[in-house]
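Sequence in, structure out.
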Amino acid sequence: MNVRNLSPQKMFERMALEHKPLNAFDPGQETFAAWKARTLPKVLATTGDWPGKVDPTPELVVEWVEDDVAKQRWLLDVGPHASATLLINRPTGAAAGPKLPALLCWHGHGRFGKDSVMGNKSSSDRKAEIEGCNYDYGHQMAKAGFLTYAIDWMGVGERNDNNKPHFFNHNGGRDWCNLYYLHATMLGMTSLSINLAHGHAATDFVTSLPDVDAGRVGVMGLSGGGTMTLWTALTDPRMKAAEIICYSDLWALFGIRDLNYCGAQVAPGLFKLVDLPDLQGLLAPTPLLVDIGIHDSCFVVDNATACFERVKTIYQAAGVGERLELDLFPGEHGWGGRKSTDFFGRFL
């Protein structure tokens, strides 16, 4: 009797482990420049169509100072039929000085989205989320001298359709990230293309501000925010440096085996072309800081370091090995925070 596999999950796991991406980087086969030239256009094409641009019609809602950081809350149109709340943090007294370098700070899949990243500790739940993973890099980096800004991506924080003022509950408990992916692909788009377009719109507005140096902009983000950081740096040439925080792994393992991804992080045919280390390697020559938590239970250090070693091979092949840095910190899933100020200070 043949032993049959009736599990679709096991089928996908075995397919993924056997899969060899068509455009995986092989330094013995071609130069970095040739590989990037033939691979990047194919990778970017997987995101599908992008929504069009709109006039941002910005509205400043409120300004305040908190913990030596000057803060603003704006409302901004970021795409057709779509608005977002934009939070901006500045070091106090910055208005009298030279123009500031800026950092787009993407959140992960936390409960409060951008609010935690930008330092909102107004309740015990919010404070616990920040302290659990050193999550308020948008606040800390502003104290360090950068202008930081953040919006929610679709499905999180104020753009979570379960929350007020939306109160939609007909998703039946299903993940909005996955539902938006289904909606988007029906229209020839992806959640990535829409969220990225909204992030680009936020950057358009922030770089128009009189105290921002539009030539010194970077991006950073934790976990799902690492996904957005990676794709933002791939698609927006204004990003002069990037920090990917606890988003290093291999898709066959963290994605297909562990089910540790969602519709906001994927694009049709992407793994057919490249694995995650290849995708990160395509950032070269952009300076890249990678944070890996030794005790991370979300992206396990075994897989994360294997990913980083492959990225290092690509950066070295590109001749810019010195532009790739690692913060291997003794912590759980969160921001290492030990090298960020120096890293962005040097490259921005």
